[in-house]
Design goal:
Blueprint lengths: L6 H18 L9 H14 L2 H4 L10 H4 L6 E4 L7 H13 L3 E5 L5 E9 L5 E8 H22 L1
Antiparallel strand pairs: 1-4, 2-3, 3-4
């Protein structure tokens, strides 16, 4: 296993490669866990770079074309908050960090959507989204690209 030259950058770049490499593997269908891998990588991408790179996330409103997540995927967001990348990323981070997400199957019994929820310490809901798997993957790729751009800029 090679060492990290630039830990944050290498972690994000390697996580992206892990997702891409998995797609190229030939794995029997019963042993294929691409959603689990995607969620594990998603957790790492949302949590580890958070302290250093979240302040540089765009404040643009999410769009399905650019980020994979359409505003309609978000059924609830705390009053006064915009459905922008910065807020969505924070809520998704909180959701996965506190294990407040649930997978839903399609008619073929394959995972097709993930529901994310976030709550305040008081128990009040602050966020709810139901995101199709393909859209979540697009968001993950775009988030990774954004982190890598920011890291390259600040090297």
């Amino acid at each position: 296993m090679s060492y990290y030259l630039h830990q944050e950058f290498d972690f994000v770049e390697r996580t992206k490669k892990i997702i891409e490499q998995y797609d190229s593997l030939t794995i029997p269908e019963k042993d294929k866990f691409e959603v689990t891998l995607l969620l594990n990588c998603f957790v790492g991408l949302l949590i580890l770079p958070q302290q250093k790179w979240y302040d540089n996330l765009p404040t643009e409103i999410v769009s399905q074309k650019e980020w994979g997540i359409a505003p309609e995927h978000i059924s609830f967001i705390k009053q006064g908050e915009k459905k922008n990348i910065e807020n969505i990323s924070r809520h998704l981070r909180n959701s996965v960090a506190h294990y407040r997400f649930k997978a839903f199957n399609n008619s073929s019994n394959k995972i097709s959507r993930i529901k994310f929820e976030d709550f305040e310490q008081s128990g009040n809901k602050t966020f709810e989204a139901l995101i199709p798997l393909a859209n979540l993957r697009q968001f993950t790729n775009k988030l990774t690209a954004n982190f890598m751009t920011e890291m390259n800029r600040q090297k």
